[in-house]
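Q: Predict the assembly, please.
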Amino acid sequence: MTRLALGFGGNPTKHISGAPEGTNMDDLVLKFGGSLIAISALVVFAHFLGFTRHGKLSSKGEAAHCLRLAAGGFEPVHVFLDREGEAALAQDASGRGAVLAPHGNQFVARILSAGAKLSLEKDRLQISDQSIGLRPIVLRFDNMPPDWVSALADAR
Amino acid sequence: MSFDPVTLAIPLFIILIVVELLWAHKRRPQAYESRDTATSLAIGLGSTMIGALTGGAVLAMLVWAHNVSPFSIGWVWWAWPLCFALDDFAYYLFHRSAHRVRWFWASHVNHHSSQHYNLSTALRQSWTGFIALSFVFRLPLAFAGFEPAMILACGGINLIYQFWIHTESVGRMPRWFEAVMNTPSHHRVHHAVNPRYLDKNYAGVFIVWDKMFGTFVPEDDEDQIRYGIVNQLGTFNLITSVFHEWIAIAKDLWHAPWRHKLDYLWREPGWTHDGSRETSDMIRARWDRRES
Ligand SMILES: [Zn+2]
Ligand SMILES: [Zn+2]
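A: Predicted assembly structure:
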């Protein structure tokens, strides 16, 4: 933080005495340490108040709203939600796929690349793609997903 | 007398964050995310430390500009409100360019990359503002004859004002206040990725600059705001959050044809020579076509 020597009493000369008092390294290290402790305390407090949780999509409508904000634009025609609303897969009129990947308690909309891999198992669909990073997205379900999901998975 | 308004305000910032956390716990659980808060506060701390190292150089440049100028206003009382208002206008110009010139955006983007909007978001200040030449916008004030220390004090008070508007806990302020001042409602619009809100409401303290220069959009309660950046980061990693756009610029410079390389520095974020990405104007146009 810049420490300013302000001449509040008025300074008639043009050459102000406002040069910084020199950045005292010990002072800086002390401030850094103190701030680090304060930050850690706030984050731990936030955690204990329950602010480390998954996001939940309440409806397909909410998912569609988030998907429309995907970079480059995406207009979903079909949306498939994870059982708990913790992720979503969608398809547009041209057959492109897009996902809502969980990120903290929010979601990140990503359009799937041609190299995306979708593997359909008994009660879950796993999606991995360069657009969503290292960790695959998992959508869990009770009833078999609709045909368009299986078709999208078969095509990959 | 040693006076640094931002350092003095830090305990107040911490108390208000605690109060907002308690409010969110009761009323709006999705307003905070502990890992996001950790990233925001760490960015704030890093920015403060880097500011301590570059602050001397910024002050030296202001002193130089003040000394070569034929004008000297001095410490007369009326210089304070005038300096504050003009510094806020300089902030508007800085902020507008920070969204419209990619070199400046690379530094400012970390203020916007959180998908949350709370008081901790306010502390996501840049680490690379010095490289992005942010101080240039304050030099004209020193040339105009204002005392460099007064300019920096006004800048500090401006920054403190902007802290409290980063909240969802305040709906609307009284009408007269909303008309003149930057408020939580106006600044929520600024942090939104909803197409109609992109690159609007650049104000620091007085919203009048946006109204004067055509960049004002009021918050619409029907249009639920989503916060962040157009291409959401999807990570809480501190280093990625601070440097991703600089890395993206380097990659674009490497791959771009020679005649377009400089364009990737000064054109607006999202601009490409082959149209493969979208600028905010392109996103808005696409959205308007969809609505009509
Ligand atoms: Zn901004
Ligand atoms: Zn802000």
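Chain A has two domains: 4-49, 60-154. Residues 25-48 of chain A form the longest helix (24 residues).
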